[in-house]
Structures
1.
Amino acid sequence: MQLSKIDMNLFIVLDTIYSERKLTKAAEVLHITQPAVSNALARLRGHFNDELFVRQSGQMVPTPLTENIIERVREALASLQSSLNEHDAFDPQQSNRTFRFSMNDTSEAYVLPRLMEVIESEAPNINIESYTIPRADMVRAFSAGELDFALDVPIINHSDLVNTPLTTDRYVCVARSEHPRIASTLSLDQYMSEAHIHVSSRRKGGGQIDAYLGRLGLQRNIKLRIQHSRAARPIVAKTDMLLTIPESLTRGTNLQVLELPFAIPMLDWHLYWAERHESDRAHQWMRERIFDIFRE
DNA sequence: CCTCTTTGTTGCAAAGTTGG
DNA sequence: CCAACTTTGCAACAAAGAGG
């Protein structure tokens, strides 16, 4: 049986008869005449090839088949109803939605403490899931509905995705304060002769820095490749290795923060979401909360 | 592309049927 | 016998097809 072959209103009638147990009462609730309900029931009986309700001591009692399907029918109706409400309102106090984010460790560390604080007070039943989705898989994940938001640099271009800038950061280099060869300034020669830590969630491939140096015909010595920038800082503190990271990540450390000896474009962080969620009130609410965090 | 016809669906009122 | 459900016939309507 194809869904297109059945009048969806019949499911509403089924649900109402189930609730009221009387066709006359169901008709009143539905604002149609009793024969219309009877007719609808007849059509439902045809579709399901089952009596669905049998008369028993003045009541229309559901058959086992009706009992088997009623819960799914009601869930489906509720789901359809909520899709209609999508444009109407979103009550953060009531919502029990789950929002899924793709973030790296840096954005998690920056966004989640502030976001969860807001959620705890304004939207107690909302859940958050965060995991890193590779860029190559991002568009697919959005269109499959596996993802609500992603935080990334403006590198993904697709007509199904919307993105907006959140913040701008600049790269700096950090070294330990007792570094034997570096103090307060950094020359290109020094930068190129020291060993580096490269942070990337990928297994291989350079970052923005390496791409830029490559254009100058240079290649730095990457001695350590790790996934998380927060893990890199203690390593810098104990070794002579250099680490090139966004300036915002250097706060609260007692490392030397050095200007890079070359000009490199600013690091822009963007928030991505699927075009079809543009007018979703829940999404709009969440976007505003994230924008708030970056306005601070 | 427009108009007319055909066909099928829906809901109504009224009449018929059924169970207690 | 009454209340409640079912059936019947009708009118309105929409969609699809036919014809100019």
Note: The CA atoms of residues 98 and 127 of chain A lie 4 Å apart.
2.
Amino acid sequence: MARTQGSHSEITGPRIRAAALKLFAEHGYAAVSMRQIAREVGVQAGALYNYTPDKQDLLFSLMKQHMDELLEACADRVKDGDATTRLHNFVDFHITFHMGRADEIFIAYMELRNLSPENFHTIETLRRAYEDVLEAILTAGLVEGVFDVPNPKVTTRAIIAMLTGITTWYRPDGALSPPEVSDLYWNMTRKSVGV
Amino acid sequence: MARTQGSHSEITGPRIRAAALKLFAEHGYAAVSMRQIAREVGVQAGALYNYTPDKQDLLFSLMKQHMDELLEACADRVKDGDATTRLHNFVDFHITFHMGRADEIFIAYMELRNLSPENFHTIETLRRAYEDVLEAILTAGLVEGVFDVPNPKVTTRAIIAMLTGITTWYRPDGALSPPEVSDLYWNMTRKSVGV
DNA sequence: ATATTATCTGAACGGGTGTTCAGGGCAAGG
DNA sequence: CCTTGCCCTGAACACCCGTTCAGATAATAT
């Protein structure tokens, strides 16, 4: 027996990625086996290797895709306006973007150490590029004379850590709506940079 | 052959805990085997079971001990003064305490999902108790009329996330000294709550 | 209708996993 | 000096790991 009814690359491929994403986020990369992923998809473990060269690449490509989408979507959102407007847009973007992708975020921040050295380097570079977007906004605000930020590098990390922490408690069915969360965090961010 | 020269419970026990702490922090609980821990200590894997009932308990007891020490040390630091003073003390305590314990923090935040349900519940309760310390300070500041904090619960999580993020970039041999870091973060925290 | 190709199965590979335990050696107590 | 008991070894247990691959089948192209 072999190829079963309805089998198709364009269906199975995304299903494998979705299953891996979900399971990696839930249990961690190291704790999830290829056989578990295969079972979730309804396929034998060997079939996964039609879609990924190995387990490491499955993790890496999920993280890479996430970071690429993050950077692309971010760039559109923060290119216009004065520093305060751009900062507001960045905060709102970060929160909104991350709320719909809890699993991706979790993996992007938790599984860095399970990447091979060269894969780690690639993801780390993208992560730094994202930080640089915020740092550029803070520096622009300093130049405009509207922000009170003694150390833009540290402030960048502080703000991103604060915003990303939302994923540890936010639930779609919780007490706060996304706009309410965005507003709360924007006010904290705004005040912390002295606007 | 069996008991080797120099073997002793009071030496081996802590060495096992130290090795597990280091390896869990470096590679993650699921990626570290009992044989790796044993090798780090210079002992056979079977010997570990004189000191821990199983691998899960080894992780749990490390996390539990960390949380207990965190809560005890914290309580001493924030019991006196007005809300602003207590907030300042909390921020400084959190940063100082965490800087010397990078491995413990890493595990406490990253390995929650590898705890058994009942162990998770225990640690989660302690974590919430720690959050409650900060939330009580914020609420006290509201009562005193000195803080501008629309939502103390969310603000608590935001501040803790921001402060804990330090562990992802701080290095003892880096550009900033601990007091400088503490000062930078205190100013951001202070401004974000409107003081 | 037939040939080709894409897709999947099922078994196998070598090796690693957490954990148990009988037995042996070291140190301390009588 | 001899016994007692703690500490450790080394082998074994049953099972799971990532990965490979020959062979079988379904869909597609001719």
Note: Chain B touches chain A at residues 26-28, 30-31, 110, 113-114, 148, 150-151, 154-155, 157-162, 164-166, 168-169, 176, 181, 184-185, 187-189, 191-194 (CB under 8 Å).
